[in-house]
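Budget justification aside, the reviewers requested a transparent look at the raw inputs and outputs of the sequence design task funded under Objective 1. We therefore reproduce one unedited record. The lines immediately below are the structure tokens for a 329-residue chain.
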């Protein structure tokens, strides 16, 4: 008798308890898809900066937002399928800091899910927005103007390596727009400096290695690496190869210099990622991309690695050193 009573009370308690459990369940967190053409190991600071931007408007990963990271490692051919899957998941927003290719793929995949980009070119010309002040669609973000400083970066390289005459230019042909503009601007600047340039292509890790094998046989005096998310993410590989071939190289991202690259000049891409994170957070709070003006990021960083310079036998002029924003000892 007592046993039956105990069982009945237990079942009743369980029945009463279900609504309490249901009320205690938390709603699913909004999901942001973070898509980058590079690799996680090479561009980890970008993801950190993105999370910092989110936190500035009150979103902390794992607490009130989930971030799904997608690192393509140069495999841009996978973008259509990836974006289709992201759209099927109905994420709250898609963030594409630092790459034209990923930004265009996101914009092409959806007209409703907010897209927050970070691109080095005019987003109106790219077709990402109709107007900088009032984007008018589902996309907005940051324009970093990296393409506008291509010629100046070559001049800085020439200042550091004045005896250089033959310069190899490495581009990622999958990043069509960036590759085209880089070649045009480098060739234009090279004419004024009396330099001879030759273009090489690389879309994968193995193709970067192959390009350096070709460089070694041609005896180039310097290397100019195009602004590209995948190429920037291969900083350690470039540091190793340029040290082996003893060739001074210039990059668009200071992240490469921090791991052994010779020099860089370009937009502050970590700050760009932070801004993309902050805009993503504002959209999660209800702001409409159509009404958020495209931000103009004009913060530039000139970085030099003195240890690499010494290993290459290069003496950095004090005048050039004095204008460097970052000096790696």
């Amino acid at each position: 008798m007592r046993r039956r009573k105990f069982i009945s009370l237990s079942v009743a308690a369980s029945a009463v308890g279900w609504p309490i459990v249901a009320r205690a369940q938390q709603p699913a967190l909004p999901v942001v898809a973070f898509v980058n053409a590079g690799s996680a190991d090479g561009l980890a600071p970008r993801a950190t900066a993105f999370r910092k931007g989110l936190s500035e408007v009150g979103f902390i990963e794992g607490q009130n937002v989930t971030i799904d990271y997608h690192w393509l490692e140069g495999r841009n051919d996978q973008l259509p399928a990836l974006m289709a899957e992201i759209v099927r998941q109905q994420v709250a927003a898609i963030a594409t800091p630092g790459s034209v290719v990923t930004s265009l793929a996101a914009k092409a995949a959806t007209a409703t899910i907010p897209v927050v980009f970070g691109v080095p070119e005019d987003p109106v010309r790219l077709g990402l927005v109709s107007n900088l002040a009032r984007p008018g669609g589902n996309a907005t973000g940051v324009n970093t103007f990296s393409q506008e400083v291509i010629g100046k970066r070559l001049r800085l390289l020439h200042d550091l390596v004045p005896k250089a005459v033959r310069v190899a230019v490495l581009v990622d042909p999958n990043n069509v727009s960036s590759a085209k503009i880089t070649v045009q601007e480098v060739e234009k600047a090279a004419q004024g400096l009396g330099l001879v340039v030759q273009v090489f292509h690389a879309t994968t890790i193995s193709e970067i290695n192959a390009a350096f094998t070709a460089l070694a046989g041609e005896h180039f005096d310097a290397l100019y690496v195009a602004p590209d998310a995948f190429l920037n993410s291969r900083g350690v590989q470039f540091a190793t190869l340029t040290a082996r071939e003893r060739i001074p190289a210039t990059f668009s991202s200071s992240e490469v210099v921090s791991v052994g690259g010779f020099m860089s000049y370009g937009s502050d891409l970590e700050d760009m990622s932070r801004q993309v994170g902050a805009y993503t957070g504002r959209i999660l709070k209800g702001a409409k991309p159509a009404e958020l003006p495209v931000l103009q990021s004009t913060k530039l960083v000139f970085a030099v690695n003195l240890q690499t310079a010494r290993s290459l036998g290069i003496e950095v002029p004090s005048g050039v050193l004095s204008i460097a924003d970052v000096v790696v000892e």
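The two ends are 83 Å apart (CA to CA). Residues 171 and 201 are 5 Å apart (CA to CA). Computational costs for records of this kind are itemized in the attached budget.
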